[in-house]
Amino acid sequence: MNQKKLGLIFSLLLTFSCFEGRTIKTAGKNAVESRPGFHFTAPVNWMNDPNGPVYYKGVYHLFYQNYPTAISPQGPIVWGHAISDNLLDWAHLDVAMKADQPYDAQGVWTGSILIDEKGELWLFYTGVTNKGEQVTCSARPANPNDPLLRKWVKNVNNPIFRQPFANLTGGFRDPNTPWRNPSTKEWNMVVGSGNGNLGAIATLFSSPDLNNWRFSGFFKKCDKQVFCNGFYECNDWYALKAAGTQKEFHIFKYSDGDDYYSVGNYDPSKSSYPFKGLPNRESMYDWGKGTFYASKSFVDAKGRRLVWAWLRESGTAEGTKSRGWQGVQGLRLATLTQENILAFNPIPETESLRYDHFSSPNIKVDSGKSVPLGPFGSKVDINFLVPNATQSSFSFNFRSDKSGREFTSLRFVNQGMLEGTDLPGSDYNDFPNLIDAFACRRVCNDDVGCAAFTFVAKTSTSISHCFLKRPDSVNPTSKSGVTSGFKAHVFLDASKSSLAEPTRSLMMPIYNSINLDVRIVLDNSVVEIFLNGGRYSMTSRIYPTLPDAINIEFKGEKGSTLISKFDLWKMKDSFINFSDIPLPSNN
């Protein structure tokens, strides 16, 4: 067994817990390991949404949607549970919440945990009744003095409320963490839903005591000019101060195929629609096309806003079944920049896992040339700087084998105007009557969520239009009178990432920047990319099969590129060693 001290966790487990040993499936001796070494995974089988993360009595708790007996859900979902004292090393506890009542017989679904002003805990979740109805329920810790929070007692009055209207569609779920309304002094809570004609809608509930709730209005609805479709789920709501200021803004986050956010202002005196987003400040949490999903935030012991997210698998069903586990949890630090852009970065604690530092200044990458940097392994933390990046295009290849049969490529692309070219579909906003395509490009560059644009010129019978587009606009077609263009962007090409399970490629725009600061975190099958202080992030999953697919290199594509600083660290595993640590029984 790894001899690293468990510290607080170990002492708590000895004091409070009884365990049954269990062997966890990992890759064989000669196979390429896909299970991450320092990202959180369940011991076996299915895991999805993070639920109710909280710091309580010196212990970090992560609850998560779990189906512990099969690789994909075959019955009611339960709440898995793990604890940590440092956010890196985790110990699994027994299932925290089971589907054992008529009001949650078909599943204990996603929810939140509140620590109120008295320091008391309240758990809220979506129960799926024996008739399939989604209802809001609550629970309290059986022993508030137990820092492990092993047992919970469900409210005898569950469900505490149901959906307020019959015409809400798609579901009614995922209560967010309640907050005290400074105007009414009551507690507020948002639950996600949808309405056929209105699209996604967030319902607002109020309570004087966290027990008795009433519907009090709508919190946010889908404006069809922005990122949303038919349903808000896994909502989150919190405040952050813009960097270098005391100005506080509120962030409303929702999941709808991807995780999206709006930065805006909150008027607690309004009973309906108290939140209004700022112009051009609605975007994606992550540009991984749903790989980073169902995120949930909390405030840690240091007062930081941390965000957990389910990192979904991208491999084949056969590959996932053979691995014996499914789903990863990612953890990031959330901050708000001076431009009111939400930025995400790895938590600083991960830097303690670094070792074997490699550094190189002034790497020159010429067009058509390769600069190999050598094999470094499948778990690394990389950071490099590219000054004046708008003058060239290049790629950074990683997890590459010597023969070039397997590799993943991150391409940095600067593309000019495409006259006579349309990018059909994926429109989320239209600015009419702009003078030309250059004006349209400026609008796109100023909008944090814009990946590409199409400008349709004015004619004798119609006005001009500037259509802003989401990142899936990657199939240009010819069309007269139309000019399109992409923001400067990065393109993650995973088409050769695996001989057995190649995964999808991704695109991420770069927000108004001449210089590039790139951080790439690789943890076996997990790929996390952060640009310019985390203003943009992209998550992917890859499944290489070749043991020597551990090389990295730069390749020049257009012009000459200077990498002014390059740093790489190999990464140690965090503490949990699934093959020999005692784990809780599911019984």
Give a quick precis of the structure:
This protein is 4% helix and 47% strand. With 587 residues, it is mostly beta strands. 48% of the residues are buried.
Mean pLDDT: 89
**Class by alpha and beta content:** mainly beta
Radius of gyration: 24 Å
Distance between the termini: 25 Å
Number of helical stretches of at least 4 residues: 3
Q: How do the strands line up in the largest sheet?
A: 22-38-24-34-35-36
Shape: globular
Helix content: under 10%
Poorly predicted runs: 1-6, 14-23, 577-587
Oligomer: single chain
Task: Give a structural overview.
The protein is mostly beta strands and 587 residues long. 4% of the residues lie in helices and 47% in strands. The chain contains 3 helices and 38 strands. The strands form 8 sheets. It has a 6-stranded antiparallel beta sheet with strand order 22-38-24-34-35-36, with no helix packed on it. A hairpin with an 8-residue loop joins strand 29 (452-456) and strand 30. The longest helix has 10 residues, at 437-446. The chain is globular and about 70 Å long. Mean pLDDT is 89; it is low at 1-6, 14-23 and 577-587.
